[in-house]
Amino acid sequence: MMLTASNLIYHNLVGLYVKIAHSTDPTQTGLEGRVIDETSRTLTLSTSVGNKIVPKIHSRFAFYLPSEVVVEGSDIMLSPEERLKKLQRRRR
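and the corresponding structure tokens:
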């Protein structure tokens, strides 16, 4: 399945470039880098100042495919495997 804005939340996010568009932690807003790890509750980013762990909850992420796609952290609060299962259940 090709990665598009409409199916981004069902894909593994590792390897994608992302910017924190908004966070309840003001020190994380504007942070950007490549996703190097993902758990059900966090994204680990490789940034210019080192690796940073960002909680998904209370954050808004701007992923850069060819164009910017903004995703609420609450929409990706499951592990990649669980999000894929959710997509498969929706298609039945």
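(Above: one complete record from the training split.) The two ends are 17 Å apart (CA to CA).
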